[in-house]
Amino acid sequence: MTNVSLTRVLAFCTLLCISNYSFVMCSRELQTKVNMLLQDEEENPKCFLKGTVKIFCFWERGEDNGTTDPYTFRYTYEQEDTTVCPVEVLSSEGGRRLYSCENFQVIFYVPLYIEVLRDEQLIHNRTLFTDQIFLLDPPSNLTLNRTAKPGQLKVTWLPPYFIDNGLLYEISYSVTGSQKGKREEVRIKTDLLLQGLQPGVSYSVRARVRPQSSGFSGWWSAWTDPVSMEMPYETDPLILSMSIIISLILLLLSLTILLTHRRFLLKKLWPVIPSPEGKFPDLFSVYKGNFQEWMNHGNGGMRWIPAYYYTEEPVAPLEVLSEINRGPPLPSRMSAHTHRDPQAAGALGAQQQREEAVPEVDRGSPSAWSAVQHEAWMLERMRNLHPTPISQSSLLESHDVYVALNQSLPKPQDKEEAEERRDGGGSGQEDILEESVPLQTLFAGSGTRSSASHSDLGSLQQSSGRLSSQSSFEYPNQTWPPNGPSYTYMAVADSGVSVDYSPMSSGQLTKTERRPKPRVIYTNEYKNDLALIHKYKHWQLSGQPTDSAC
Amino acid sequence: MLRSFGLFTVLLMVLEWTSPGLPSPLWPICDLRALDHFIKKAQEAESAMRSCKEECSLAEPFTVPQPSVDFNAWRRKNAQQQAQEVQSGLWLLSQALRSLKSSISNTMLHSHIDNNLGNIISIGQVLRSLSLPEYSPSEAGPTVQDTWRVSSASALFQVHFNFLRGKVRLLISHAPICQQAIS
């Protein structure tokens, strides 16, 4: 019984409701538009065009205590009769209750007067033009397509139904999940090329539309549902292949250059350090680098082979300078007593003693030693400056031809003594040997040995490794020019042993013997090879020092 | 003397024969900004006429073209029919504006009326540039099918305003020569 009465009450209420208002179940699109206008439009009733031929107007319920809603909606076009539209209840989100009148006739470019009455009382009225209230559906079929070029997307869509194609589209695209994005407007066309997209990033694209031409106006439509697409990591195959080919060509070129210039590069990168081990046999293996010891025990001392030295440096001339001997010109006469005539020994006793003392002093004085070298160099320079040096004849006239090794320049006292001797004997000029011709030696010579080059290993030992060459050539009228620091010369040490040589010829000997000065009689016949020397005024140092002729 | 006068007469006859009407612009005027300017001026005149109540009331209602547009009916008409409807409506509006000008004495309103009359002539030039068919109303008056009758100056300018932004704009924006230019 109770159930039957309850059912009757519910049925009555339903019929009552249906009789008054018809409830409109909003579609999703309509609900979206209503919500948009609730935010954007202030006037009531709010109206928009559904498509192009129907108008939809709605308004919110006022303070009516929630009972029945006796609303009346009527509209009037210019020069037309007034029409009443049936009001419907529109359910909306948020519990709002909306009333609407829809699907009434649309006339463009004519004013439309709208009135809303409740209980015959006007609560809303407005005048509007239907061509200004377009609220279109969003574009449909929004599609994203990749293009041939990377970083691009082509967006296409279909326009909503409208009077013509005069529509304005707005395309929004952003990284998926990001609020910030870019927007671009497109007029009339229904496609857009998005550029500058990053590979590997997913982009969301959406679109909306509004009328733009023909004098129509309205609101932006709702956004379409976003469409996402991830940009691929694409590389242009042409660029990739070209890059590989160019890389291979460069690699081959570099390899070719490396192989062809391998030696050059190796020499540049790791230059060969010359090892003296090959040049000095047994120096490092046997003598453990002790140069002095190696020289003492070497085969005849140092091997003066120029090719062993300065292999890497350019050939430079080296002069072996003879020493001017302004002092007593015949020190060797007394020193060479072993080959001297015993008869002459007594006559030269005192002088012999004095001259033998000279080398001793010189060897012990390094300053005097260097002074000798300088003066020898100056002598040679002066000789070069004056192309007519001492004539051969004058040299050949000298009676004593000798080589005095390690003999310094005469000291002032020695000079006086020499002058005295010269004045007394008058043999100054006569004692100049033909060997006093400058002994210019080129280091890079042919290596031929000259018999006139004499050195003594013993002198090397006594001079502590310093080499000096001093010959007793006399240049009475010449002075030694100072040598520069860059001037190269060779100083050859002598042994301090004077050697007397036999006269060059019997004629000269005879001439000498006629003189009143004490003459020297040599026991050893000296075969002078000065002729050979004169042939090679610039003879070259043969290399290996030879033992003294005596 | 007579000979030169004869030559001058022949020259005038040739010129008259070669250009019988007003010279038309060389290029079609598809830009709607000029029309929008005319529409704006019509709206301003309508607002000005609203302030004029008694003086601007008309003794006899004017016949004006119907501004409303039914798109379905409009699309069914061809270009010549659309052009004739627009040009006849402009002729009716110009006649009504001249009648209004003679009925009121307010100089400020006279300027609005003169301005809109000049705009109607300009719109005729624009339509001529679009190679639309010419329309010359007969002395008996245009054969406008849909007309309204207005009894106030504000109603007249409201019709003028809506007619311009409705039918005139639709005609110009959809002119074939302008569609070719867009595509």
What is the gist of this entry?
Chain A is of the alpha+beta class and 550 residues long. Chain A has 14 helices and 23 strands.
Architecture overview:
The complex is a heterodimer of chains A (550) and B (183). Chain A is of the alpha+beta class and 550 residues long. Helix content of chain A is 29%, strand content 22%. Chain A has helices at residues 2-20, 28-40, 237-260, 262-269, 291-297, 331-335, 342-347, 349-363, 366-385, 392-397, 412-425, 457-462, 506-514, 530-535, and strands at residues 23-24, 46-50, 54-60, 71-77, 82-85, 88-91, 97-105, 111-118, 121-129, 134-135, 140-146, 153-158, 167-175, 182-187, 191-194, 202-211, 218-219, 227-230, 317-320, 402-403, 439-442, 489-490, 499-500. In chain A, strand 4 and strand 5 form a beta hairpin. The longest helix of chain A is centred in the middle third of the chain and has 24 residues, at 237-260. Chain B has 183 residues and is mainly alpha-helical. Chain B is 64% helix and 8% strand. Chain B is built from 7 helices and 2 strands; from the N terminus they run ααβαααβαα. Chain B has helices at residues 2-18, 33-50, 71-76, 79-103, 107-129, 153-173, 176-182; strands at 57-65, 147-152. In chain B, helix 2 packs antiparallel against helix 5. The termini of chain B are far apart. In chain B, 34% of the residues are buried. At the A-B interface, loops of A face helix 6 of B.
**Oligomeric category:** heterodimer
Pair of chains with the largest interface and how many residues each contributes:
A-B, 19 and 21 residues
| Spatial gap, N to C terminus of chain A | 168 Å
Structural class of chain B: mainly alpha
Q: What percent of residues of chain A adopt helix (DSSP H or I)?
A: 25-40%
Secondary structure: elements and pairs:
The complex is a heterodimer of chains A (550) and B (183).
Chain A: H1 2-20, E1 23-24, H2 28-40, E2 46-50, E3 54-60, E4 71-77, E5 82-85, E6 88-91, E7 97-105, E8 111-118, E9 121-129, E10 134-135, E11 140-146, E12 153-158, E13 167-175, E14 182-187, E15 191-194, E16 202-211, E17 218-219, E18 227-230, H3 237-260, H4 262-269, H5 291-297, E19 317-320, H6 331-335, H7 342-347, H8 349-363, H9 366-385, H10 392-397, E20 402-403, H11 412-425, E21 439-442, H12 457-462, E22 489-490, E23 499-500, H13 506-514, H14 530-535
Chain B: H1 2-18, H2 33-50, E1 57-65, H3 71-76, H4 79-103, H5 107-129, E2 147-152, H6 153-173, H7 176-182
Antiparallel strand pairs in B: 1-2
Helix pairs in contact in B: 2-5, 2-6, 4-5, 4-6
